[in-house]
């Protein structure tokens, strides 16, 4: 059997990782500022994480949600504390798209409505409803087309007010990433998030904060939407939650009441997944990772803003987008193959930095030096041809 060829891949095989470094099969070291798409939160093979998972695996790896799993309660309590939402409720699943599906389903059970507001540039996953609220028609198969989804311009308060004025009593939910990831690191403005909160309150619609990529401390706050000083009704989370182990969750406001079989999953909340989730939160607390993300992130943002050839630098904490002009579109490849630095990307020319939350300043400097060399090389090339 062959693999179904859906991913354009780099010709590199990574066999080992430690912290923010990874090594390929030839022993070449790379600086990892991509984290396998914002997944590595406490660093590769963090000793506490490895020990916690190994211990759990030696005891019991999996059992389903038909028995008591005290690890789930421990995880819910810790997550409530670290996220500052101790009165919220946790439902555990295994991927980001699954978190989105369940958040939207829960919202619809709650107010018995169907219409969802999403925004230009939004990415919420690839399963049926998640892809329907994703603003990329190329990803939507005919069976996923959904006439209940309304796309509005991002950060446009007037358009949002108009949509609510026209059909507010039909709006089930508004879903928004605090910082758009796939959309190119676009930060939702604080006043836009506040407007969503007040309109959802007014019309009894559900505010869903998609924190799958921008959450879990990456922005320097637990949820990036926290910068706006408002609470969402449901937070979705995944990627950094298990540092590579597939675990996801939705954090649900107290006003939502559960009933048996309302939501469900086979794998979600299993013993090994909970051990991974707990290990991540423990490291985040012990090593003050949110503070580190805020500090090293703001250092990177400040330094990057000094380069005059960049179109724009956007982001918060360790979720940074470097928007490059066309003539610098090759820089991402040079960073990988010449300087051995992994970064992410967004179309057309945005370099995305999504490193582990314990990225050191020295590693940030290593990136800045390589980046500066590439920009200088391009300037020299342009002067020679002028
Ligand atoms: C903001 C956001 N929501 C949802 C998802 C879907 O997550 P998953 O790929 O785990 O299904 C992603 C994935 O990139 C994402 O960035």
UniProtKB/TrEMBL annotation:
One Pfam family of this chain: Aminotran_3
Molecular-function annotations in GO: transaminase activity
Electron transport as UniProt keyword: no
Cofactor names: pyridoxal 5'-phosphate
Keywords of this entry: Aminotransferase, Pyridoxal phosphate, Transferase
InterPro entries given in the database record: Aminotrans_3, Class-III_PLP-dep_AT, PyrdxlP-dep_Trfase, PyrdxlP-dep_Trfase_major, PyrdxlP-dep_Trfase_small
UniProt record similarity statement: Belongs to the class-III pyridoxal-phosphate-dependent aminotransferase family.
PANTHER family cross-referenced by the UniProt entry: ACETYLORNITHINE AMINOTRANSFERASE, MITOCHONDRIAL, AMINOTRANSFERASE CLASS III
Protein name: Aspartate aminotransferase family protein
